[in-house]
Amino acid sequence: MILVMGGAGYIGSHTVRHLLDNGYDVVVADNLMYGHKEAVDERAKFVHADLLDTLSLDNLFKNNKIEAVIHFAAFAYVGESVNEPEKYYYNNVVGTVNLLRAMLAHGVKKIVFSSTCATYGEPKYTPIDEKHNQAPINPYGRTKLMIEQIFADYERAYGLEHIALRYFNAAGCSADGRIGESHTPETHLIPLVLKAISGERKDIKVFGTDYDTPDGTCIRDYIHVEDLALAHRLAVEKLGNYNGCINLGTGIGTSVKEIITAAEEVSGKKCPVEYAPRRVGDPARLFADNRKAKEVLGWEPKYLNIKDIIQTAWNWELKRRY
Ligand code: UDP
Q1: What is the CB-side half-sphere exposure of residue 86 using CA atoms within 13 A?
Q2: What would the pLDDT profile of 47-106 be if each residue is shown by its tens digit?
Q3: CATH second-level architecture of 2-171+222-248?
Q4: CATH architecture, range 189-220+251-321
Q5: pTM here?
Q6: How far is the CA of 52 from the centre of ligand 1 (A)?
């Protein structure tokens, strides 16, 4: 059985469905602070648990035959992490140490972890490969880097088997529209653009038009959430044969303006735009060198066209359940 910590969240819930579709038994644990119970597939067992409640973690391992853990549970708002670092270090770092403690106490040594390209900080070159210097520029990114470093220490001392997946920009929703992205507050570009198009928001504010990029707006690497889900399963299957960190991105850069144009084409509607100043801490361009994921995991992203990614997000936006 696979334990998915944070399996009621955006990427977690898509991974849970993918695991179930591929024959795995899954127990989902989530504190439902940001996750949605409706996002958890009925075929999975659900347990209300919190990383900071060591008793609930211990019970999880006592009551379920867990062979491996996929760990998504974390706070993930960059701006909030700057204003409330304690919340981030306590939940993300202490919480993960608690999880590892419960795992080791019950003889579970396999973990796949949600890391992020934010661990690289301001890029020195693109595409970014895994050897790129890691110098995160906010507490959120630092919590993820610290956990990667903890894994390496636990590997040496306790034989932990670990793969940290460094996501670029997760995007899109399940192809059948059953589950999707729902954050409160929403800060991510694609859902905000779609809400501006649908009229749920007044407009989209484009943060900066004077970057050193072809159209002046920031370039990011948008990776479909189902391609992320696939990579998590492949990583679980690879545990024991490989320890370390792997980038997950398409390797394709798309600008903010290109996202808006693609969303207008997909929806057939105009997006009200307001040009705004740069957001602090946004690098001009971030996109992945994804060769390691292909080589080590045998992973191949299916969604390479940004319009196909946005189409899945638009389908969800039109019929969302939560
Ligand atoms: N962005 C924007 N307006 C918004 C939200 C985001 O222009 O309301 C830009 C942001 O500056 C970045 C890109 O869209 O260049 C993706 O931002 P998001 O917050 O989705 O992800 P991040 O790259 O920060 O992880």
Answers
A1: 0
A2: 999 999 999 999 999 999 999 999 999 999 999 999 999 999 999 999 999 999 999 999
A3: 3-Layer(aba) Sandwich (3.40)
A4: Alpha-Beta Complex (3.90)
A5: 0.98
A6: 30
